[in-house]
Fold:
Amino acid sequence: MSIESILQEVFGYPSFRGPQHDIIRHVVAGGDALVLMPTGGGKSLCYQIPAIARQRAGQGITVVVSPLIALMHDQVGALHEAGVSAAFLNSTLSSEEAYQTEQRLLRGEITLLYAAPERVTTARFLGQLDALHDRGQLSLFAIDEAHCVSQWGHDFRPEYRALTVLHERYAGVPRMALTATADALTRADIVERLQLEAAAQFVSSFDRPNIRYTIVEKKDASTQLLRFIEREHAGEAGVVYCQSRKRVEEIAGMLAQAGIHALPYHAGLDFKVRQANQNEFVRGEGVVMVATIAFGMGIDKPDVRFVAHLDMPKNIEGYYQETGRAGRDGLPANAWMCYGLQDVVNQRRMIDESPAEEDFKQVMRGKLDALLGLAEATDCRRVRLLAYFDEASQPCGNCDNCLQPPEVWDATDAARKLLSTVYRLHQTSGVSFGAGHTMDIVRGKLTDKVTQRGHESVSTFGLGADYSESQLRAVMRQLIAIGALQVFTSEGFSTLHLTESSRAVLRGEVPVRLRESTSQRAVKRIRGRAVAAPAAANLGQEAMVRFINLKSWRAEVAKAHNLPAYVIFHDATLAAIAERAPQSLADLQHISGLGTRKLEAYGAAVLAVITGESRTVGAD
Ligand code: ADP
Ligand code: ZN
Structure:
């Protein structure tokens, strides 16, 4: 059976996406591979189809290594729905269940086995793999979330380092590593740590064209967030990332008060509560998860319509990974971040005060600066994001800066006044001061601190009285972003310092051009495609009724199977069925996402919903 027919018959998809075809062909033929593909790009099929093809060719089982124990149940459930024999081994199974699965494994009844890295490297499991290997029944290793092997990645897991045993012990068995994180450093580390020097590398475009990037200046973050959700995502599922547990609780409470179905998630919550909230998010409709970055890896809910950052992440990898959880179904989605000077200072402090080695901190500072550059950019966000992953591109037309080019003002004069104040303060008092005090001097404010220290006599005092505080803050952020100013923290105090590149700005050799702070002008609404209910956006009234009926039918099936609704059918598949209004099983052929097995299992029920013979109630 060809890989094309597996795609069509098992998964119900008409064609491969991007490099899937090349990757799958390579792996089916027994090659090693490193697959770098953005979230939502379709990595799973890249190992699932080879697993099925090789099993059918008598080559035995595929072991999928994944750190995401909580998700294995749904991943395996989705394969069962498609008629593929799969299982998982992890700590959620009772010893009897684990034993049964091991027996099935040894009998060759399983095509894909999911297991966590710490499980894979136990003597017991390796013994079972030995037995399969001796019989030529060990087909493929797929190492998912492979960036976990790297300390440069954002989710280092030491257990991944032990996976070299797979290569050493089963040298002839093909291995593939997959990840959505691929800056050069992490990529090199994966190759080295997992000994994939000889593997073919498949690097996809990292672009997620359906995601619209917006970064706004932070004023009153909670109100800004609430407006964003109410205006653009009422009733839709989304994730809100916050820096701290306390903030997660606060924001979740605030949203809930405003009538939004919001739930908190952070490592400080009881395991059961966390599980329940995650379940509700994945299985429910329109739930907003307010979370620390502890949440989200491997959540493959396809219809997350927005990801909001209320605080700035650590670096672009983290930002891209987190925002990438929006719109996996390919339909329009929003990535929205609000950030301010305090975020920059906080992130710097966390790096400065961490116990890490100085050269590690240096790398982290560089990464933070790159993110700052993105946040302060006045040109296309996507061009910058992709450039960070070494990918050249053209302005995208689907980010805030493209849709509404920011007005730019010449801030060279303000920048020089700020920098020379930092310089003079250091000269006169021999110590450095923070952003607030420096701005007070430039603006000529006689605060207690200014008078106590006699800083009204600093020669730049009051020279920038015309600038508003928010303008100066923006200048400050920009100076930090271009490296003309540095923030250092010690003992809880942040102070400003000049750098090598300050001089050129001071001399007026480097113009500083800044986006007009949004408080300086009326905020124009970005008018673009609406993102509301994108799967069903183009349905007419009657089709919409069918869509709603199909959704309530799907909810019942999902509940009965103890699986998330999207595992049964994606919204897009239901919308396509609603649109077509099929009258017979033949009419259901070739709808994307409807494979042979699902047609057999659900075709008749779907027809009954459409023709109104089912007992599912209508929209009224
Ligand atoms: P990743 O693991 O790369 O984030 P997934 O494997 O979860 O992405 O795939 C993202 C979504 O795209 C899934 O819902 C999957 O069913 C769908 N998908 C993958 N490949 C195809 C394809 N060739 N045609 C249509 N849909 C696809
Ligand atoms: Zn753009």
Remarks:
- Confidence is low (pLDDT under 50) at residues 519-532, 616-620.
